[in-house]
Structure formats: structure tokens, C-alpha cells
Amino acid sequence: MLLPMEIGDYTDFFSSMHHAKNCGTIFRGPANAVPANWFHLPIAYHGRASSVVISGTDIVRPRGQFAPSGNSPPPFGPSQKLDFELEMAAVVGPGNELGKPIDVNEAADHIFGVMLMNDWSARDIQAWEYVPLGPFLGKSFGTTLSPWIVTLDALEPFACDSPKQDPQPLPYLAEKISKNYDISLEVQIKPAGKEDSCVVTRSNFKYLYWTLTQQLAHHTINGCNLRSGDLLGTGTISGPEPESLGCLLELTWNGQKPLSLDGFTRKFLEDGDEVTFTGFCKGNGYTVGFGTCSGKIVPSTP
Ligand SMILES: O=C(O)/C=C/C(=O)CC(=O)CC(=O)O
Ligand SMILES: [Ca+2]
Ligand SMILES: [Mg+2]
């Protein structure tokens, strides 16, 4: 199988409030969990397009540096905190000219459709490297996409209100109609040697705070041009319930509360684990599906 498009650039947002609160609490404590800018703009980092792969591609456990204790040098080795991130991604249709931002109310015309996306993340590499410029090697070793793009037209029957935004965003992010989509999402893990996979979490696209159109408008407000085939990840989609969190970092609270699954436990991913995302919208007598977004962890190469 091949990716359905050539990806020029890949940007990953951070648009679920539940995810932002949980990660911030884990990394910085409850007092400083959500940064002051979060409610004013859809935060993102620039990802790596070269390592975006199609569902079914193995993911090699990354090696890297981790935070040292005291004055010792940073430890180095295979990540011990390898995680999935349950995301969706918008694919840009028509782009915009350099210097000409996309109006938030016209942004939907620039989105071809959406896919399932796993932004694999090495939490130990990430935690040591990401201040002050954001994620780098902790996320650039692989990102998996589902095999086809579902157009926004096909999703229109499943449009729903997005969460109320408080404070009100600035005028360039204030849209006349603020839309989310009711897309059920599920993550399963199948460990090596097991017949069956086990459901790890269930979430929904509708939990996103910042909409796809706000992401697009913000991305271009400085004049940055998007091109056809560019990929815009939503960020991990966590819901409000403990069973709807979108990554193991949150589900196990950074490994402190291992998950009890069907005959096995997990703090983070182990070699041989196959992680599969599925998503669907249930219509009247029909279903819109996204295919699967799947990848197996293989051991680090020395
Ligand atoms: O709040 C923080 O300091 C860190 C947040 C994260 O690490 C979340 C994350 O991995 C970003 C992403 O969704 O890719
Ligand atoms: Ca991400
Ligand atoms: Mg990634």
C-alpha cells in the first residue's frame, strides 16, 4: 500500500483541551498545566514529512538521549517510553499564495479531507529535548496514516457543534459556523504472540477545542503558504473521561498507573505490540469508515 498523496509539509497541532491539561499536569504540575497562549491560538509544532508512513509499516523503536539525574551525563539507548497518539489529520486541497492568509470562513474550501493518524512519540526523548523549541527526535521517527482520505463532503452529515470557546478568539479566528464532526475513534493493542487485540481507549473527533478551519486560518495568518498534500495533524484527541484519553502517557499517567488489559499490562509500548486505530461515523443505514491506521513496534537497531 502507498500513501494517497505526496506530503510536502507536516504540521501537528495540540487542539484537545483535555490532552493539553493532562500532559501539562504530568510535565509541569497542575498549577502550570495549560500555558497562557493555549486558549488564544491553536498551538502546533512543525513535524517531519519524510517519516510519515502508510498503515502497516513497522515502526523501529527509536534510540536517543534522556534526562540525566544530577550531574551525570544523559543516559542514551532505546526509548523506554514509546507511546501512540490518537489523532486525525486534515489534508490540504487547494493551497494559498505566499503572503495571502486563508480566511477562517473560507478555510473548509482548502481542506480535501481527513485521515486517521498516529503521531508515535518517545516520551523520554521528548521530555529531555523539547524545551524551549518543541518536539524534535521524540516524534520524527515515524507517523502513521490510514490508507484513504475521507472528504469533508462525506463527513457533512456528521457535523456537530464544536465546544464553546472562552475567552472569545481574536477576530481572525472567529468563525461564523464553528464545526466539529462526530467521528468515533478506537485504539487497540495486539501484543506479540497474542491472537486478539484489546481495546485500549475510545474517543471522538468532536472533543477538539480548536476546529480544523481555525487551525488552517491560524497557520496562514502570518502569510505562510500551504500547498496541496500538506498534512495538518489535530493533536492527540482526548475526551473528558478516563477511558477516552488518547495516549498511554495520559492513560497510565506517565507509567505510574499501568493499564490492565486482557491478560497483560502496559505502561508504554513493548516490542512486538501492534497498535491499530479505527474510526467511523454511523449514518442512517450506512457507515463512513476510515480504514485502519496500524503499525507494529520492532526492536531498536544498534
Ligand atoms: O504540555 C507540555 O509540555 C507537553 C505536551 C505534550 O507533550 C503533548 C504532545 O506530545 C504534543 C503532541 O500532541 O504531539
Ligand atoms: Ca501529536
Ligand atoms: Mg510523529
From TrEMBL:
Any Pfam family hit: FAA_hydrolase
Keyword Magnesium: yes
Annotated Gene3D superfamilies: Fumarylacetoacetase-like, C-terminal domain
Location of the active site: 19
Molecular-function GO terms, alphabetical: fumarylacetoacetase activity; metal ion binding
InterPro entries: Fumarylacetoacetase (IPR005959), Fumarylacetoacetase-like_C (IPR011234), Fumarylacetoacetase_C_sf (IPR036663)
Reaction(s) this enzyme catalyzes, per UniProt: 4-fumarylacetoacetate + H2O = acetoacetate + fumarate + H(+)
Binding residues annotated for Ca(2+), in chain numbering: 12, 85, 87, 119
Sequence positions that bind Mg(2+): 119, 139, 143
Keyword list, A-Z: Calcium, Hydrolase, Magnesium, Metal-binding, Phenylalanine catabolism, Tyrosine catabolism
Cofactor(s) required, per the database record: Mg(2+); Ca(2+)
EC number: 3.7.1.2
Pathway annotation from the record: Amino-acid degradation; L-phenylalanine degradation; acetoacetate and fumarate from L-phenylalanine: step 6/6
Residue positions binding substrate: 14, 28, 126, 130, 236
One GO BP annotation of this record: L-tyrosine catabolic process
Fumarylacetoacetase-like C-terminal domain sequence ranges: 12-294
Family label: Belongs to the FAH family.
PANTHER family, alphabetized: FUMARYLACETOACETASE
UniProt name for this protein: Fumarylacetoacetase
